[in-house]
Amino acid sequence: MATEQTFIMVKPDGVQRGLVGEIVGRFEKRGYQLVNAKMVHASQEHLEQHYADLKGKPFFPGLIKYMASGPVFATVWQGKDVVKQGRALLGATNPLASAPGTIRGDFAIDVGRNICHGSDSVESAKKEISLWFGQDGSIPYKRAVDAWIYE
Ligand code: DAT
Ligand code: MG
Predict the structure, then answer these.
(1) What is the largest CA-CA distance in the chain?
(2) Could you name the active-site residues (predicted)?
């Protein structure tokens, strides 16, 4: 069974709007395994590191301010193809382009308030998990239900 991991974060608007349970629940119900989680009120410096690839974009200062405006809920998920499937569960970056049934397509409207983050590749996932969780990236444990999720 694959042990791919991804970093999924409920952004400050998602936390404020009471959507942590909804977002976590969608990953759980799909069958993915939660292997780490915490609430963090991140510093601007930490968020600038997280979004380093976007430095220089016109929306960058606003993005950092929004992300630092309140606590986020940071999680690590494990399972087969979880990076790509995680992005599919979140929907398109711009919620107006997200299909109904996706998290952003069901709960968001503006791109600058799109309520959740998901790693875009296995490589970014590794970097993000290490940035947010340090050495203890995940807490491994065996799930009895895996035999009913994976063939
Ligand atoms: P994603 O979050 O889907 O990986 P991204 O990495 O390109 O998208 O951008 C990170 C975040 O930056 C995104 O979730 C919302 C914000 N953002 C992206 N493009 C934007 C834009 N054109 N205007 C305002 N905010 C934007
Ligand atoms: Mg991204």
Answers:
(1) 47
(2) 117
